[in-house]
Specification:
two-stranded antiparallel ribbon; 2 strands; about 35% helix; mainly alpha
């Protein structure tokens, strides 16, 4: 089981893409963590990562240290 830490402005689909290589695992990530796909996440929150689906994409995110963060900043 992989545990990940939420960074500023990350969403469930961001993390699903980063960790599993596809945003299609967003629902699975949400369910694993007792959340809804649209829930706001807190910086530093710990989540159980979904299984890797597209290893090539997940490896690029890891190698390049990409951390997508699509949520809007609070006004």
């Amino acid at each position: 089981m992989r545990i990940i830490t939420v960074r500023d402005r990350q969403t469930i689909p961001d993390i699903a893409t980063q960790e599993a290589g596809t945003a299609e695992t967003a629902l699975q990530l949400a369910v694993l963590n007792g959340l809804s796909v649209t829930d706001d996440l807190a910086v530093g929150q710990k989540l159980i990562a979904p299984p890797v689906v597209d290893e090539a994409v997940a490896n690029v995110y890891k190698r390049e240290q990409w951390r997508p963060a699509a949520a809007q900043a609070e006004a």
